[in-house]
Amino acid sequence: MDEHAGGPVPHAQVRVDLSAIRDNVRELNIRTGAAEVMAVVKADAYGHGLVPAARAAQAGGATWLGTAVLGEALALRAAGVTGRLMAWLCAPGERWADALAADVDVSASAPWAVAEIAAAARETGRTARLHLKVDTGLGRGGAPRAEWTTLVDTALKAQADGLVNVVGLWSHFAIADAPEHPVNTAQVAAFRAALAAAEARGARPEVRHLANSAATLMAPQSHFDLVRTGLATYGLSPVPDAVRPDEVGLRPAMSVRARLALVKRVPAGHGVSYGHFYVTDRETTLALVPLGYADGVPRHGSGGDGGPGAPVLVGGRIRQVAGRVCMDQFVVDVGDDDVRAGDEVVLFGDAAGEPTAQDWARACRTISYEIVTRFAPRLPRTYVGEEPQR
Ligand SMILES: *Cc1c(COP(=O)(O)O)cnc(C)c1O
Q1: Which helix (H) or strand (E) holds 285?
Q2: How far does Cα 349 stand from its chain's mean position?
Q3: 230 Cβ closer than 6 Å to some ligand 1 atom
Q4: Which pTM value belongs to this model?
């Protein structure tokens, strides 16, 4: 439902199609067969809105939700979201007792984390659901392979004491977006070895999980019991040069649109926006878009200084950002097109003919993850496709 229906139309908005999220998860579930789907909803569901996106993913069959930090997981519980939920990025002194009280699965990559979690379990009388993470090659989180069995033994000792249940063993890919890269094969082999070592010492996990979106789409041998899909949940491709979303049955859930705040004719030779990196080469019409980097429009999408700006759809045509993206606004040169203040401009969307988040990523030399995740609280979000339950 459009939450602005009947009210004033916002000057700009992030529109999120919850039915796209639901359908994308359904599609991913079909691809993964017996493996379950964890919808990764960290970072405010990649900018799509934590709670509505989580509910839409559950409606599509996600039996797990995943967040990075604990605060995100607790916010889901506070909103009444039930079901399996894991938060994996914690620092010493974390609010473990709150995690246990809220039935949030936690993760440990080192014995100190197991000790803190066990202490919280002893304090609260609740058994922690614990996932152990091994570094199979990413070189980021996870226990180094040399310290894996120590971590496993520490956790199994706490399990024997009734303080934790080792419910998951997991790891994360480094280069899943290049499926032919030998690091992927090495990581799967290292993961299998880590699982075997843990199981030989007595671990009996419910779920073993390794795959992110790219591996979910391209590497079925990495699915194990559970896949953790972030970007694909939102209908974007983690491998844009190899797989278009529509080729794998996914459609983007987010579009960013605004209404032109001002339209005016200017003569040839007119500098546009801070620094005058764009100068009109003829008499033309400039259209002002009331969105800027404070809203999440990347300043790298500026045009005129070494290349064309990022694309927008205005007046039925793809145009480029002209000159610098400012804090609150940017300008588009629309030539002689008949556009008016109040007309809609689409930065990126989901319909044919609209630029995509990937187009913005390319123009800004980044990844679509960063484009959608940047869009900020100042912009109203409108949900379509499903009633957001609160
Ligand atoms: C963010 C994240 C994911 C999801 O990655 P995508 O590429 O968006 O699917 C999965 N696992 C972990 C540990 C993550 O941090």
Answers
A1: strand 284-289
A2: 16
A3: yes
A4: 0.95
* Domains detected in the chain: 63-232 (3.20.20.10), 254-384 (2.40.37.10)
The CA distance from 385 to 329, in Å, is 29
| Active site annotation includes 278 | no
Q: Which atom of ligand 1 is nearest to the CA of 68?
A: 15
**pLDDT tens for each residue of 117-151:** 999 999 999 999 999 999 999 999 999 999 999 99
Residue type, 348: F
Q: What is the pLDDT of residue 8?
A: 65
Is residue 295 helix, strand or coil? coil
SS percent in the chain: helix, strand, coil, step 5 = 35, 25, 45
Q: Ligand 1 in contact with 131 (CB < 6 A)?
A: no
Q: Where are the alpha helices (DSSP H) in 95-181?
A: 96-101, 111-124, 148-160
Which one of the listed residues 42, 46, 133, 234 is annotated catalytic? Answer: 42
Measured in residues, the chain has a length of 390
Backbone angles phi, psi at 51, to 5 degrees: -75, -50
pLDDT for the residue 74: 98
The pair phi, psi for residue 262, each rounded to 5°, is -165, 145
- pLDDT tens per residue across span 260-317: 999 999 999 999 999 999 999 999 999 999 999 999 999 999 998 778 999 999 999 9
User: Catalytic site residue 42?
Assistant: yes
